[in-house]
Amino acid sequence: MSAPTATDWRGVAAEDIEDVGKAVTAKLQARSRRLLVSLLRPHKWSVALALVYVVLENGAQLAGPLLVAAAIDRGVAGVVAGHPATLTWCVLGYAVCGLASAGAKFGFVRLSGRVGQDLLLDLRHRVFRHVQRLSLSFHESYTSGKIISRLSSDVESIDDLLDMGLDGLLSSLFTVVGIAVTLLVLDLRLALVVLAGFIPVLIVARWFRRASHKAYRATTTAVAKVIVQFVETMNGIRAVQAYRRHGRNEQILHEVNVEYRDANNRAFKVMARFTATVRLVGNLTMAVVLAWGALRVVDGSLQLGVLAAFALYLRRFYDPLDDLAMFANSYSAAVAALEKISGVLEEEPAVAEPAEPKPLPREGRRGEIRFDRVEFRYRPDTPVVLPEFDLHVPAGQTIAVVGATGAGKSTLAKLVARFYDPSAGTVSLDGVNLRDVADVDLRSAVTMVTQENFLFAGSVADNIAMGRPDATPDDVRRAAAAVGAHEFISALPEGYDTDVRKRGGRLSAGQRQLVAFARALLADPSVLVLDEATSSLDVPTERAVQAALETVLAERTAVIIAHRLSTVLIADRVLVVDGGRIVEDGSPADLIGQHGRFAKLHEAWLESLA
Ligand SMILES: Nc1ncnc2c1ncn2[C@@H]1O[C@H](COP(=O)(O)OP(=O)(O)OP(=O)(O)O)[C@@H](O)[C@H]1O
Ligand SMILES: [Mg+2]
Asked: Residue 449 Cα, ligand 1 centroid: separation in angstroms?
């Protein structure tokens, strides 16, 4: 009769969400576990030895109060009766236990430290290696700030766990269990009083585990936000200063910073409640044990030494619970970190290496590119950027791609270099689908020179040699000379050895462009893709760059996204792109004659030069 009420409806939805939540958590845990197991596997013998050390250390530690009890109850009586042997044995035993415990502690800390550091080394290496290989599409959504926080704060959380948490956990567990058993053996009734105190502690511990996990997950998320905000501001520091964005950035940082502080405060509050409760229960138990124990000593049903042992054990019984709390904290932080890191590590490259790569044909200089019914969109949920099209670029041809901003020129270029795979259709090089070409083959066959002209820290020579790591200094010089960069490089403070990041090594936009050309020339690819920088260069530099370009283009296929008339005019063929479609295709001369878009563009260029 009645439609489901709002509450019914919401109830169902909430349940569904909870189910999904549970499934996600289970998946996260499985993922973290896989990572942890794979990290620990190479160290399994060291881990086993560390466990032996822990047992030894805590066993020796546990024997202490027993020896004290024996010394008081039997040793002292023995001395009075003229037999000092028992007391001597107790004292010697105590000393030996102390030595053994210290030695085992030393062994454990050293060993666990070494294993921990090896494991972290491995982890940082894996994250870096993997992230570096992930496709562009990953890096577009996953900022460098996030990656830095994975490599820094998240790895650090795991470090904390390994350094302190694990030691605390193992020792605490052994101590608590060992003491509980010893107390039960020493005096059942008094031990039950002590164990009764454990019930409220367990209840609080259960609450604590959940609360601290939540609190710590919040802190790792918050610290990641702080790092992201830092990194993004510094990456864009030029824009920040040019547009006076300081205020807004400081406000954003303040917000995430406060969030981080509050998350930490919540975590501390949880911790404070737990440790205070444990301390209270511990002290109350001690009071009860002392009162009742003393009464029983008086009526003769308990030996004085046993009461002393109880008092000594009790102090050690509740203290480890603080360590357990510490462990729970670092464990929560580390679990949250592991979840994030394993997420990155299990990210599949969108542009995957083929399982069975096909070789590119070797003979002769090739470089024929074919787009066959290619359609492209950046993500399944975004609009098509390049609607279906065919394109054939014969080997050796130089193609200039022109068109308005946002037309899809860079996108087309990125498909040639396989930074992305087409959403439909195939892009092939010398008759081989790019999806089937091994990465090494692809990178040596196709070089993309982007607008960024990125220089890495190192010398100018290193930056040029990046194109071919086995190049000799002479090769580097020849390449630089061929593109006309030799002159300015020689004029740098230390010539080819000048550090491009140091003072005096900073290069101008035009110089960076020339270095990028020398790098590409040295790499000697069969296909060169060049996304020309839009920024206009001064006339002498433009001439130099132009001459360099002609050298680099000789005898290879080239796709140039051209922003300058001089570049377009050296091309064999021009493609005019509009809204992702190739609307004109022909030699520069033909297109100028056709009075189409290119002709208009050409006219505008000429006017701007006049
Ligand atoms: N990584 C990306 N994710 C989603 N959409 C993108 C991405 N890169 C570009 N686009 C979109 O694809 C379209 C084509 O962009 P593209 O970079 O190919 O243009 P362009 O012709 O190179 O422009 P310009 O001359 O300004 O460099 C644009 O609408 C742009 O918004
Ligand atoms: Mg572009």
From this structure: 17
